[in-house]
Every structure is written in C-alpha cells, then in structure tokens.
Backbone:
C-alpha cells in the first residue's frame, strides 16, 4: 500500500489523455516487461496548457516535446518550430544568436545550464537517477512569446 502502481501501455495512454502532461511530471521508467510506473502530477487543479511552447513528455521516445511558439528578437517576429529534446537537467530555452556581422541564427529549442542574453527560458527540466530509477520532472513557464533584445555599447562600435 502507498506504492506507485504499475500500468501497461494502454492504461498509460488513457492516463495521458485524461490527465495531460503539461504540469510537473515525476516519471520513473521501468523498461522490463514494457511496464512503467504511474506519473504523478502536482498542481492538479491547474488546467492543461496547450499554447505556444507547451511541454509534454513522450514516454515512448523518452523525449520532452515542445510545441512551436513565437520569438521577438530586436523587434523581428519569428516562429520557433516544434522540437523534441532528450531530457536533461537545465532550463528549456529558445536560443538564437547574433553573430559579429549582425546576422541571427535560426531559433532553436535547447536545454541549457543557465539562460543568457541570447536564450529565453520557457521551462525547466530535472533528471534524477538512471535506468529503472530514472525520474524526469519538468515544468512549463507558459510563455506565449520569447523576447530577446541584444544591444551593444555605441562606444564599442567605433
């Protein structure tokens, strides 16, 4: 009693449909026999977020799926494509870099140790343990638009 129940794949699929996966997730994956331990959620009363940069965990691929979203970088609007990332501990960020010629890189989703002036955090992920004891916890910051403003010191431009 008090343990985490083990569910089969069809039960897990049904659970994902009912509960959603955009809240904090603690999942322990047990690869033996295709069984997985039940994900547990916090903030149960919170409605599922399905907007820009919504996060969900795909137990079949062991990836965090990030929905497409919007980026405003120095006043230029871009769409950031959806992406699946392998879970690791760090901030889930929209990253775009301005090079020395003033050209921007294509925006991407990456997990970083810390956000910086050319990355905007949209969530956080923590991975504990490995194998049978692996746990993935993530939270979405519910960001509709990532905003990056990069400016230089005019005195440095001479």
Residues:
């Amino acid at each position: 009693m008090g343990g985490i129940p083990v569910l089969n794949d069809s039960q897990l699929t049904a659970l994902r449909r009912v509960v959603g996966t955009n809240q904090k997730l603690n999942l322990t994956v047990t690869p033996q026999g295709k069984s997985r331990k039940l994900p547990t959620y916090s903030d149960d009363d919170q409605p599922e977020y399905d907007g820009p940069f919504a996060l969900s965990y795909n137990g079949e691929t062991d990836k965090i799926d990030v929905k497409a979203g919007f980026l405003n970088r120095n006043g230029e609007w871009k769409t950031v494509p959806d992406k699946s990332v392998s879970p690791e501990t760090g901030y889930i960020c929209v990253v775009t870099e301005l090079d020395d010629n003033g050209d921007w890189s294509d925006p991407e989703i990456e997990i970083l140790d810390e956000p910086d002036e050319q990355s905007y955090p949209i969530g956080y992920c923590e991975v504990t343990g490995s194998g049978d004891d692996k746990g993935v916890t993530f939270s979405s910051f519910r960001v509709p638009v990532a905003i990056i403003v990069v400016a230089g010191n005019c005195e440095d431009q001479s």
